[in-house]
């Protein structure tokens, strides 16, 4: 009897001293486990006389119940202390300045293309796609630029190595046609006219490629928007109105002056360069307009009869205009971007400004 009381005193002290939940677990095993000291006593009861067994048995059971209760209480105590420490350690300081979320933004070119498409769609123009890998026929010949014509030098071309599959699928059936990366979006004019009957009112936004040295205003890869409007009696006056309306909307200018300066393109006759008054200096003469007060913003002209013929149309009674401009150039003018190469730079300092 005495020894059980001593055991309990010893066990109680040990339980109270257990520093952690884990240490308490060890203590529990030591006293109440299968080979524990109290378990040992209970097991040895069978060797005692019946009287002693009853007395000691009752005592040992009370001891077991008491120790179990002590361990349970101590465990709760230790766990809540540990939880408090944990909470204190993980406390969130709501007064610390937050970390800003970095939002993705629309690329300035995507934005420009969307705006351009939107303005022309309101004028009844549909946006059409075409292939970036083109045949020599669509990129040059169909546009009235034969192989020996000096005008071919106007476009520095990336030629592709011949590819048997593409050769055999050539729409014109001209086997052995050379393939290239289109140098302008103009070939889509012919592709579209081949498949659709006039009248036409389309724009062709897309990527074009030029084999040339890059600098602040030239890149090997850029975007162009081609436009085509054809009906029985579409005139230069129609063109001037459409293009002025477009540039006024795009640059957000109340009134722009548009001047057509004579030029040359093999696929239009007459051809002109489209000039608008400088949007930066309002004719006060700045560096952007090279002190002329004018900006060259597009190339255009009346569709050459040969282009209609090459698209399989009878040019008699058909009349219309075609135009083209560089999307990067327009975005550079609008947002005062000094270097065309910034568009492909992926520099977040540049991109986050839009
Ligand atoms: Zn200017």
Write the layout of secondary structure elements.
Elements (H helix, E strand, L loop, with lengths): L1 H16 L3 H12 L4 H8 L5 H40 L18 H15 L3 E2 L5 E3 H4 L18 E2 L4 H5 L10 E3 L5 H9 L4 E10 L11 E11 L4 H16 L6 E8 L2 E10 L16 E10 L1 H6 L8 E8 H9 L12 H4 L3
Parallel strand pairs: 1-5
Antiparallel strand pairs: 2-4, 3-4, 5-6, 6-10, 7-8, 8-9, 9-10
Helix pairs in contact: 1-4, 2-4, 5-11
What do you see in this structure?
The structure is a single chain. By secondary structure, the protein is α+β, with helices and mostly antiparallel strands. It is 41% helix and 19% strand. It has a seven-stranded mixed sheet with strand order 1-5-6-10-9-8-7, with helices on both faces. Strands 2-4-3 form a three-stranded antiparallel sheet. Strand 7 (258-265) and strand 8 (268-277) form a beta hairpin. Helix 1 (2-17) runs parallel beside helix 4, helix 2 (21-32) packs antiparallel against helix 4 and helix 5 packs across helix 11. The radius of gyration is 43 Å and the shape is rod-shaped. The N and C termini lie far apart (88 Å). Zinc ion (ZN) is lined by residues 278, 280-281, 285-286, 288-289, 293.
């Amino acid at each position: 009897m005495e020894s059980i009381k001593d055991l309990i005193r010893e066990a109680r002290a040990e339980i109270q001293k257990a520093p952690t939940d884990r240490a308490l677990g060890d203590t529990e095993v030591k006293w109440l486990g299968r080979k524990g000291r109290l378990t040992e006593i209970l097991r040895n009861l069978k060797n005692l006389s019946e009287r002693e067994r009853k007395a000691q048995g009752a005592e040992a059971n009370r001891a077991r119940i008491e120790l179990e209760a002590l361990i349970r209480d101590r465990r709760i105590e230790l766990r809540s202390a540990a939880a408090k420490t944990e909470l204190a350690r993980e406390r969130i300081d709501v007064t610390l300045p937050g970390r800003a979320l970095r939002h993705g933004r629309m690329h300035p070119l995507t934005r420009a293309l969307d705006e351009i498409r939107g303005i022309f769609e309101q004028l009844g123009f549909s946006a059409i796609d075409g292939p970036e890998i083109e045949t020599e026929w669509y990129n040059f010949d169909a546009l009235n630029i034969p192989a020996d014509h000096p005008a071919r030098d106007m476009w520095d071309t990336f030629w592709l190595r011949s590819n048997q599959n593409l050769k055999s699928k050539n729409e014109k059936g001209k086997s052995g046609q050379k393939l290239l990366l289109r140098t302008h979006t103009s070939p889509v004019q012919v592709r579209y006219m081949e498949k659709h009957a006039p009248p036409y009112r389309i724009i062709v936004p897309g990527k074009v490629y030029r084999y040339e040295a890059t600098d602040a205003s030239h890149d090997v890869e850029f975007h162009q928007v081609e436009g085509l409007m054809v009906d029985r009696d579409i005139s230069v006056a129609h063109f001037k109105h459409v293009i002025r309306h477009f540039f006024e909307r795009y640059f957000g200018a109340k009134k722009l002056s548009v001047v057509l300066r004579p030029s040359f393109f093999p696929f239009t006759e007459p051809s002109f360069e489209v000039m608008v008054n400088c949007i930066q200096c309002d004719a006060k003469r700045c560096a952007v307009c090279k002190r002329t007060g004018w900006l060259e913003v597009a190339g255009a002209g009346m569709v050459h009869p040969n282009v209609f013929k090459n698209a399989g149309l009878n040019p008699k009674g058909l009349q219309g205009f075609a135009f083209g401009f560089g999307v990067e150039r327009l975005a550079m003018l609008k947002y005062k971007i000094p270097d065309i190469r910034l568009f492909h730079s992926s520099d977040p300092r540049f991109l986050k400004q839009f």
